[in-house]
Amino acid sequence: MNYRGILFDIDGVLHVGGKVVDGASAILADLSSRGVPFRCISNTTRSSRSTIAERLATLGFTIPAEHIFTPAVAAGSYLISSGAVRCMLLTTRDVQKDFVNQGVEIVERNPEAVIVGDAGDLFTYSSLNAAFRALLSGAVLVALERDRYWMDEDGFSLSAGPFVAGLEYASGVRAHIVGKPSKEFFDAALFSLDCSSSEVLMVGDDINTDIGGAQAAGLDAALVRTGKYREDVFRESRIDPDYIIPSIAHLHEILDEDGGFSK
Ligand SMILES: [Mg+2]
After folding, report:
1. 216 and 161 in one domain?
2. Hey, is 176 helix, strand or coil?
3. What is the C-alpha to C-alpha distance for residues 98 and 44, in angstroms, rounded to an integer?
4. Has residue 240 been placed in a domain?
């Protein structure tokens, strides 16, 4: 199958906990030589896009920061367009840069919006309770993602989803989700590629947000069996990927017209 562009998830696809997936660099180099543009679309909410680009560079991937789409970038656009510029952020400090760069004002009191990303150790009773109180006072809740967990170097780790769900449960306020699987998020990356959804393949390790989300947005999707991939989660999802490959190193099997991909 020939696609005009490719979207890659980062964690679990290009690298797993900082260890490059075998063959990933060669595949990206091959795409570049074929003239197939690609973008990275990650639900990572711990790092700014510039920090992600720097980290990828240390792993041997040359990807410009503006080709990396994160929920923080999408949320900044959403907040500015909806007029909620005073925001309380439950995110890492690094990711705050993506908000400040877009004109969002970070406040500790009386916010118009509460933004929740994967704040790691900054999720404390105190920070979550402050967010809960802001929601009770009328702030809107914006979730950078609601993934349940991710694969860190030392094992599966809680993502933002459980904390978003907890705040929703306590406050009765439903979160607006800006990361995968939101269609808006995929559309922003497609716009950058100047491609329509039917022309682009999404490659990811999360059956729900990467594969289910991409297919709902009109893209074909390839599931890789690296990173957070788990057979039981895949079976339970009842989502049918367009392709299933052992890792990104097998992408050429999909892209070559005579390739023996499995479906
Ligand atoms: Mg992933």
Report:
1. no
2. strand
3. 13
4. yes
Cα dihedral 141, 143, 148, 151, rounded to 10, equals: -150
| pLDDT tens-place string over residues 91-107 | 999 999 999 988 999 99
Closest CA to 204 of 179, 176, 178: 179
Task: Tell whether 36 and 86 lie within a shared domain.
Answer: no
Ligand 1: centre distance to CA 228 (Å): 7
Ligand 1 center to residue 149 CA distance, Å? 10
Residues 126 and 75 in one domain: yes
Residue 127: inside a domain? yes
What does the alpha-carbon distance between residue 43 and residue 54 come to, in Å, rounded to a whole number? 17
pLDDT digits (tens, 9 = 90+) for 15-48: 998 899 999 999 999 898 888 999 999 988 889 9
Contact, 239 vs 207, CB < 8 A? yes
Residues 75 and 147 both lie in one domain: yes
Tell me the two tokens of residue 111: 């916010």
Whole domain around residue 206: which residue ranges? 5-43+183-255
Structure-block tokens of residue 211: 């594969």
Residues 89, 111: one domain? yes
User: What CATH number corresponds to the domain at position 222?
Assistant: 3.40.50.1000
Residue 261 has pLDDT above 90, yes or no: no
Task: For ligand 1, an ion, list residues with CB under 5 A.
Answer: 9, 11-12, 205
Whether 258 has a pLDDT exceeding 60, the answer reads no
Distance 122 CA to ligand 1 centre (A): 22
Q: Distance between CA atoms of 211 and 241, rounded to whole angstroms?
A: 6
